[in-house]
Description:
The complex is a heterodimer.
Chain A: H1 6-19, H2 21-27, H3 32-56, H4 65-80, H5 86-108, H6 113-132, E1 143-144, E2 150-151, E3 154-155, H7 159-182, H8 184-194, H9 196-202, H10 206-232, E4 234-235, H11 242-255, H12 260-280, H13 284-298, H14 302-309
Antiparallel strand pairs in A: 1-4, 2-3
Helix pairs in contact in A: 1-12, 2-3, 3-7, 3-10, 3-11, 3-12, 4-5, 4-10, 5-10, 7-8, 7-10, 8-9, 8-10, 11-12, 11-14, 12-13
Chain B: E1 3-14, E2 17-28, E3 32-36, H1 43-51, E4 58-63, E5 66-67, H2 73-78, E6 81-83, H3 96-106, H4 122-135, H5 150-163, E7 168-172, H6 180-194, E8 198-202, H7 206-212, E9 215-220, E10 223-228, H8 230-235, H9 237-247
Parallel strand pairs in B: 3-8, 3-9, 6-7, 7-8
Antiparallel strand pairs in B: 1-2, 1-4, 4-5, 9-10
The complex binds adenosine-5'-diphosphate (ADP) and magnesium ion.
Amino acid sequence: MSPLAPRLKAALALFLLMALVPPVVTALGDPFLTVVANRMLVFAIAALSLDLILGYGAMVSFGHAAYLGFGAYAVALGARWGLSDLLAQILLGMAMSAGFALVTGAISLRTKGVYFIMITLAFAQMAYFFFVAQSSLGGDDGVALQARSSLLGVSLEGDMALYYVTLGALMTIYAGLYRLTGSRFGRVLKGTRENALRMQAMGYRPFPYQLVAYVIAACLCSVAGVLLANLTEYVSPAYMGWHRSGELIVMLVFGGIGTLTGAVAGALVAVGLEEVLAIFSDHWRLGFGLVLVLVVLFSPDGLTGLAKRLGIGGRGNG
Amino acid sequence: MADLLEIRELRKNFGALAVTDGVSLSVAEGELHAVIGPNGAGKTTLIAQLSGQLAPDSGQVLYAGEDITHLDMAARVRRGLARSFQITALLPGMSVLENVALAVQARSGSSFRFWRDAGGEEITNAQARAALEEVGLADRASVQAQALSHGEQRQLELAVALATKPRLLLLDEPLAGTGGQEAERLIALMQRLKSRLTIVLIEHDMDAVFQLADRISVLVYGAIAATGSPEAVRADPAVRAAYLGEDA
Ligand SMILES: Nc1ncnc2c1ncn2[C@@H]1O[C@H](COP(=O)(O)OP(=O)(O)O)[C@@H](O)[C@H]1O
Ligand SMILES: [Mg+2]
């Protein structure tokens, strides 16, 4: 066995830390913080999935939150159709996301650069307005869920149960993406990011690889959507608005684009910061913006770059 | 020997400029065919059309008897037609070994493999290392491509092209920007490759061209001004006037 890559170690440390949150905050008499930390984990999943296409594939999607929405609506629809199991809802969310991503990705990938950003945004807005128009699903206001899902017969009503299921999902997805980014497929994706013409001159056609990555990212993000709906016990089109897509990109900028551990760290810190700033001021977005400007100015590679300068991190996978 | 490459009446215009102006050319299997000509003559544009990067306006490209005019780059590479770029085109953020291993991977099995660690593929790595060995870059395998010197990047360009296992190699000024020793090393490499595969070589270094080429074509304003043995081309008065006159 080779020694663990530094970034993988950092991720394991983060997961361990997050695993300690519920007992600690409960002991401190503030169990509500479990829900806050759960929110951080949910967005870590979403940011991870976006990093696959944005960081590793250089496909800057400004519509990734659409898949948060598909996941969330899969819970609402599932509940209506008698599907209360989390896995069944995840499958439904993935199916919806895969279908949407396959069609819109195939079209979007015909464009490059700013056009790709705009067209992914446009497709996500179409999905947004589609759900706004569904009055049976609460339209603009959204719809409250009667109950949380269950997992293989075990109810997730308790905050602790949902928390550890979310953490398990995050760790599973991290592990899967860790393998994927080091695989043949991951290499082709990274190579295309580096220089698509060179890849063609080696004999590759980048399009199918990019499209498959786009669909995988969509499916993984829908898992975050399913968990988000369970966490808030509410589903609304706001989950898939363009500002939410923007926030996901900001999380990657925070953490350092193109490393899995950076995506997780970025989401944890960004959501945590949002919660903390919101305590002090209604104008928390202003403070958030300031912090973001500082990050970009002083550590262009986000937390990953900071870690590298402090002597942890460095090259390798993760 | 049979022709491996046959170009028929190839034409390409950029606006009003005829960059490829009715080029017809045959390259025999095993031949090293040099294409020389002043800057802006259309040499790189010709290579781009042979490799499938650019579509010609009219004309045909035949490779091993097959009309490949409308095939894309990937399809041509799979048939054994590889190129190097005049302006280095590498994967800057990836290691030297990964740059070459990706070229090996492209022709050995599916790349839709999502789980196994690609860096641990011994057979792929061994073939990649062999290509690096051939160009003299083996000791730089773990360095990032962007950290290589300019000359080393030219060597890597060649290693990547070789790793696709080509039958026909299109080299666009492989010596450009290399120093004395690197250039000698690359010339020696091309000398060795000559016996194994067919090469179309674009090069400004006339010593190298006359040393390596079996035949030479002179491209001026997008058209072939002369084709023949090095001796014949050197003696051709039209060529001397149009091109060699400047520095020969
Ligand atoms: N994409 C392009 N669009 C317009 N003009 C081009 C393009 N590529 C090359 N040219 C022009 O075509 C001519 C030939 O270029 P090139 O093939 O690079 O010549 P060479 O490789 O012989 O120096 C030059 O005048 C160049 O400016
Ligand atoms: Mg040129």
